[in-house]
Specification:
This protein is mostly beta strands and about 475 residues long. The protein folds into five domains: about 1-170, Immunoglobulin-like (Sandwich); about 175-240, no CATH class; about 250-255 and about 265-310, no CATH class; about 320-415, Immunoglobulins (Immunoglobulin-like, Sandwich), CATH 2.60.40; about 420-475, Dockerin domain (Type 1 dockerin domain). Helix content is about 5%, strand content about 50%. The protein has helices at about 10-25, 430-435, 460-465, and strands at about 1-5, 35-40, 45, 50-60, 65-75, 80-85, 95-105, 110-115, 125-135, 140-150, 160-165, 165-170, 175-180, 180-185, 195-205, 210-215, 225-230, 235-240, 245, 245-250, 255-260, 265, 270-275, 280-290, 295-300, 305-315, 320-325, 340-345, 350-360, 365-370, 370, 375-380, 390-400, 405, 410-415. The strands form nine sheets. A seven-stranded mixed β-sheet has the order 1-7-8-5-10-12-3, with no helix packed on it. Helix 2 runs antiparallel to helix 3 (about 460-465).
Length: about 475
Amino acid sequence: MQRGVEKRATLLPTVCVVVLLLTIVVPLPVKADGPTLVQVSPSSKTISAGQTFTIDIACTPGQSIKSYELKVLFNPTLLQANSVSEGTIFAGYTTFFNDGTINNTAGTIVDVYGLILGVGSVTTPGSLVSISFTARLASGTSSISLSDVGVTNETTYVPITVTNGTVTLREFTLGVALDGSGSVTKNPNQATYAYGTVVQLTATANAGWTFSSWTGNLSGNTNPASITMNGNKSVTAHFTQNQYTLTITVDGSGSVTKNPNKATYTYGEVVTLTAVPGTGWAFSSWTGDLTGSQNPKTITMNGNKAVTAHFSDSAPPQISGVARTTSNPLDTNPVYGWVNVSCTVTDNVAVSQVVLRIHNPGGSWNNASMVASNAGKYYYHSTTAFSSAGNYSYSIWAKDTNNNANTSSNVLFSMPPNWDLNSDGHCMIFDLVLVSNHYGQSGGNGWIREDADNDGEIQVSDLVFVSNHYGESWW
């Protein structure tokens, strides 16, 4: 058996040659006994969504036949064509078969044809082709229609009768059973449902009873509840007598105690709820079937109840380990001097901002964001924030993600000018003596405070620099 791989238009010369040869070999036409029947088999078929199945295009010759051609039309929203395979009608012969082109968007299979190569024809019924389909996830009925059907003998097209078929994607049943005393309504209320239909089930308890839960193909205690029909479904509605549930939900960090603490309560029973906040949290309010902020608070059980206890973060960030390191020696020149303030900030939720608040000698404020490093460590490193001589104070302000804020204690810090070598607040003769003690020494720029002009050498210029401030005070 050979299989065509080119389009029908390309193969027409070959087919014409074969027909011509057959005309020469068999010059006498075959007398027609009746129309040839071409039909979809089975003519109707019911399947489930997602099922793969086969449809045959059957043929009952009214006279001997040698070739066929056809197109197949179907509903692509309901069916997907997978493949076309050669049928059985030409079994035992060498054939040329083209399985056509499947278009699952348009719902067509075109250019399907087959013929016997060489001498030969058949009168025995069989299938022309077999088509594999897969039902899509839907419900409905799709026609399987045949179009442009042609059947020939050795010399001409023969009369045909075509019968189409249908494929039905079955609908599903929803069975509802009751455990206890009550009823269930279905919306929509139908005997069967198409694939994908969403059915809402509403359980209604009789007097003295309470709906408790669903089992089967539906679970939980949501009422009404929805179920999607993607198969036959069975659901049982359970009802319990005069018992009510009390569901507690916690928003934030904390817990709620119930007194009495039971799984279910009888009608009219009074339950005391006590909210217990977690560390760093405070109880704020009740919502649901209980409102207000009273704690503890009672609730009367005359139905299923649901209560949410809300807790708010009340703990501000904790600031510790405030430390300061500076250049050695201290120097007001930003090229050589620097100050680094560090601390540790922790919070029971999360830290959102840490700020170093600097009170400058002139009375102004400088708020600088501190940089996070790791494990709650923060720092602020600057060569300019403390570059003016004078007395500073600073504190650290921190805020968490719930806007709780905290401020550390105030820290005093003095930045002496370069001419006050002993940092006693005054420029006196002793400052000149300190420079004199190192006269003639040299080192890197900014190496010791006695190098007052930071030129790397202690010379007369340093004495002059300090002398120019003789008698001045800075704090």
